[in-house]
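1st attempt posting a full record on here, be nice pls
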Amino acid sequence: MEEFLEQSVRYVKGVGEKRAEVWAESHGVRTVRDLLHFYPRRYLDRTTVTAVRNLEESSDSVTVVGEVVSKSVVPGKSQKRLELVVQDDNGGRMKCTWFQGIWWVQKAFEEGERVAVHGKVQRYGRWFSMTHPDFDKLNDEGALLDTGRIVPLYPGGEAMEKVGLTSRSIRRIIYNLFKEHGLKLGEMLPEWLVGSHDLMEGRVALRAIHFPKSIDERRRATERLKFEELFFIQLMLAQMRNEREKIAGPEFAEPGTYTKEFVREVLPFELTGAQKRALNDVFVDTSTGYQMNRLVQGDVGSGKTVVAVAAMMHAFDSGYQSAFMAPTEILAEQHYANLRKYLQPLDLEPRLLIGSQTKSEREEALRALRTGASPVAVGTHAIIQDEVEFENLGLAIVDEQHRFGVAQRATMFEKGEQPHMLLMTATPIPRSLAMTLYGDLDVSKMDEMPAGRKPVNTVLRSEKRRGEVYAFLDRKLEDGQQVYVVYPLVEESEKMDLKDAESGYETLQETFSDYTVGLVHGQMKSDAKDATMRRFKEGEIDLLVSTTVIEVGVDVPNATVMVIEHAERFGLSQLHQLRGRVGRSDQQSHCVLMAGYKRSAEAKERLEAMVTTNDGFEISERDLQIRGAGDFFGTRQSGLPDLKIADITEDEGILEEARDAAMSLVNRDPHLRADEHAALRTHYQRYYDNRSLDFARVG
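the predicted structure (as tokens):
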């Protein structure tokens, strides 16, 4: 079966070399397997087609089926447009309008041709209209619709059309494939798993996703294929977790003198419940004799650094050193300053390792770490360079871990005898995504704020209220507080954005001439940018204008106001991260979202979420719903396998079931050696085993 599925699609009846080339380029269809998993983008049947007389304006997409009555290119003030008039079987007429690709679209339609158009409907005068709708030519399929058949419609495009790959021809190709070779398709999942999860048989599901006999059959086929897709990812993570749990690591003793003294004497506050739970997780993990791989995820200001310091003291009590790696020098220096403050009462001295320090400072730090005179190294990737040696490294902590590659994290292991790994992120991750991105790690969630922290007051303001906003900033500056003003920087319009920020900077200098106004942007050299950030941190700059995302974690407690210009252009997680730059003391902080009137429905949702909640985990769930998993947290670059049919935003229930099934399988047959798992093992080894996945593997 595997050999058949791996055959080139060019040899499938009805495809050939030219079509195969275009299909591969347009949609990644290269093999028979790819063809079988080239799923319909939607279906036509009597229940999904709307009559023109029943149309209404809505944010939901609808499908209208009818005949092309006329097509014409209409001149406009700024650009031409193509207008197509479609008449349905009841005589109702609607317009379809294209502003781009109009010559190709015009050639694609003939008057009298039967088509299905799909999109959002708007009303202009007496006409209902769709702008840039998806469309399919139905040719002789009108009769099929009338007999209640469910007709699959496939992804297409101009290149596909040119070689005759329409929904109709794709249907014929896939239908013939099933007719001739359907019996070759076996069942990949073992009988016990299919039965215990009440799944449709694999071969039936593939046929039913393309040619469903009923809505219910299509639903069950979709569930089976989603489960299968998520199951193999979860199996890979379960296998990685199983392997990792067998790696020996330093065995730490019970928390001793330094840990207890730090928590009880040095800290001027009581730990939150979430901090206590996270610390307890660390204490348990490090006592087993196996290597810890734990991710601590918590919102900005939830107190992750305190957990990290207590974990370091726990390592020191057990005779081990710790390394704390941060993504930038300014963050490394900030952590170093905090660590010195915490460790000096205990007569301990951390060491800093960054690229810009003097030779003598570096040599002194290297000597202290090599001889064990210092219990903790703090730094950037400079920590993992060859010349850095530890006497006895037992714990490695990586801050904002998603900003380090696998190779950098893996190098940490070579600095000690498989040190315990504690990863930290201030980016709250939705549960469904955490199960997939970090499914092989143990996760501690910190969802409480330390006592005394006030939620940031967030408001939305339009341009006409700018005077009011500036008066507010003036009052805050007069009180001795500091202000951020952030402009978006989008790659496509970088020059324009930078100009926008620079003119904003000039305006703010004039408006607040009694105060020092600074500017940082991405085109500045790193040392100039760092110098400006340091001046702001030290209070020499009162108002900082920035085009870059202000460094995650940079702590300026006296900065209490964040103004975000063109807030509608930022993503939700980005807005929340920016807001996290203020509210870092017991003073009331404020975030002002300046947004234009022209806002997309998505932008309105983002801004509404920002105003209504400060909870990073709730924000992350909303962001995932708005954006979808593919774009969230850069997962397109994370190594996450492409999902063709499952959507972890919507399929959390199936994801959990798939995860349970994968764990049951690994507990039952860790190496997949049983005869009943032969087909599953072949598929898994070919596509998932030994993958180097940035999103999951720590080393």
